[in-house]
Amino acid sequence: MSISSSRNIPTIIRYSILQAIVVAVFAGFLLSFVYTFVHNYQQKRLHVQQLGEMLSNSASTPDGANLVARQVSILLDNDPSLQSILFYSTDQPIDSLSQGNINSVGNNWYNAWFADTVSFNYPVTSRYLTGSSIQRANSSQRIANTSPISVRDTPKMTTPLAARNTLVGYINITLDMNQLRWYWVRINLLSWFATTILAIFVVWYILRKLNWPTKDIVELAKVCEIAANDPELEQLPTIQQRFEFEELIRIKESFIILFERLRVAQQDYLDLADFEQQLHNKDLSLDMQRSNFQNMITHELKTSLNAITGGLQLLDNQYLNDEQKDTLAIIHKGSHHLELTLEQIIQLNRIEKGQMVVSLSEFNPLKMIADLIEKFEPAVRQKNLELISRVHHVEYTLEGDISKIQQILTTLVDNAIKFTHTGRVIIDSQLTHFNESIRWQVKVIDTGIGISTSHLEDIFTPFFQVDSSVTRENEGVGIGLSVIKQIGQLLGASIEVDSEIGVGSKFIVTMPLRYKSQTQYEYLLKDINVVYYHHNEISSMVEMLGRLGANVSSQRNGQSMMDYISKVKVNVIMFAEEVLPEQVVQLTKHIRERETTYRSLLVYWYPLHKEQYVESFEYDLKAAGIDYCHSAVQDAKLLTALLKKWVV
């Protein structure tokens, strides 16, 4: 759809008023011309009627023939619109000469504008004239007439007409309408010229008055243009207002107020940006301190635990009595529990730092479930529970990170057995096929104590426990579910929970996997270390990069990412679409400053809805060191094509 060119308000006002005045003047002239001409014709018709009556009266007298002849001669000489004046002698009424049609309103308009001639007939009656008199009148009339006419012969009247009025004949007056129109034009030409001059003067005066507000509008528009084209403008130019129009004064005041508000908002934005930068620096510092503290405490605990474990292994070779063996078993159990807890804390720390990678290998889901049942069979038998497996698929060979999948399933089954006192624990396995992948869904269902609905969102929070009292029945620090939740996110898996107090719980793990035969590009990124920096908990990009054979490190903290790339040679660093371009610029500068022996490939995936604004931030990103900017992709084939062009 085409967009019409913009026009300014003063021009529109001038053209609109000028057009309205021209149309009004033209319509006024046209209507006045039509009306006055018809009115002139009506006045002329009345005048002719008076002439006809005068001539009829003159002709009805005994000696009226000479008088009528003189009158006709004078009238024809002085009035060029009178074409002819004729006398018809007859003693019979002529119906066709009725004045009704001539005097009608419709005929007035038609006759005034379109007729060439218009004739009027007036009867002549007398009680004195005789036939000889009529003949003399006819003779006089023929002499007075300037154009040849045919006079009707009437019977000769020999008897006097003294007893009553007798119809003698008709006087016919014919108007020359062309002469009448031209005469009327000459009479009114001067008044038309004066009226036109007056109309032009009025138009000029109106346009001049309208030009007053338009000058102020143009001045206001110039200031608006200056403010729009200069983003760093700190003070508005003076707005010249020659005429104090109330509306324009209000617009001017509103514009000044809005400009001041914009300045205040811009200053607040700059202050907020500085404050946010300070908070960000503090967060980086706090993250570094917390990371150092966690590294220190885990190292010290691990060292002490290794010493305890080594001492217990030495005691295993000694000859001990039953009481000492029981004591040693208790110490072994506590040491094992402490080692497991410490290992979970270390894993959580590694996940937060983004130091955990996904390693793909082949595995059999049926064998993994069988190993789980075999592992927990003693514990189930000890608590008199049932451990049931329900498999809804045949044997497959899939690809995935075996150790992480085993950890997720082991933690869920261990928790189910721990919080179930009577009943059973069910492991339900199901595979769903898709075009390029397969989804493995495992449900761990128990008949345990259940979880309150209000706590379902909190059980995946680190160190959260539903029963936090010191007298709680089940041991643990509440970190196992948090670890497997984040491991699942790293694998692209989801963990859902549904539970009811006193009935039991159901944990559902859904993992996207793939066949070995479907990995067409599995070696595309083999032996290539990729760091993926993102904020969201779940990212399909990590999964797609893992399918291509890359060693993917998922990073969600800037400082931990910098620590990781300082220790590991990273080939590609990718920034997710939810990361702001300003933060990408800052991190890119830090990365490029630390590079010495090799250079990493940096890619920024921007959101698809920002594709039309890519020019506003692409220059800053590439100036900082970003190699490629591309809209975020969800299609594995498109990602493969891009990586083959950028990396391989």
Task: Characterise this structure.
- With 648 residues, the chain is of the alpha/beta class.
- It has helices at residues 9-59, 64-78, 100-103, 105-113, 131-144, 177-229, 246-316, 322-353, 365-382, 402-418, 480-491, 540-547, 558-567, 581-594, 615-624, 636-646, and strands at residues 82-89, 117-126, 166-176, 361-363, 386-391, 398-400, 424-433, 438-446, 494-500, 504-515, 529-533, 551-555, 572-575, 601-606, 628-631.
- The strands form 3 sheets. Strands 4, 5, 6, 7, 8, 9 and 10 form a 7-stranded mixed sheet that branches. A 5-stranded parallel sheet has the order 12-11-13-14-15, sandwiched between helices.
- Helix 14 (581-594) links the parallel strand 13 (572-575) and strand 14.
- Helix 1 (9-59) crosses helix 4, helix 10 packs antiparallel against helix 11 (480-491) and helix 14 runs parallel beside helix 15.
- The radius of gyration is 56 Å and the shape is elongated.
- The two termini are 45 Å apart.
- Residues 1-6, 96-102, 130-163 and 468-472 have low confidence and may be disordered.
| Residue share in β-strands | 15-25%
Rg over C-alpha atoms, rounded to the nearest angstrom = 56 Å
Oligomer: single chain
Unreliable stretches covering 5 or more consecutive residues:
1-6, 96-102, 130-163, 468-472
C-alpha termini separation = 45 Å
Secondary structure category: alpha/beta
Number of helices: 16
For the secondary structure, the number of strands is 15
The helicity comes to 40-55%
**Overall 3D form:** elongated
Give the overall average pLDDT: 76
The major β-sheet equals:
7 strands, mixed
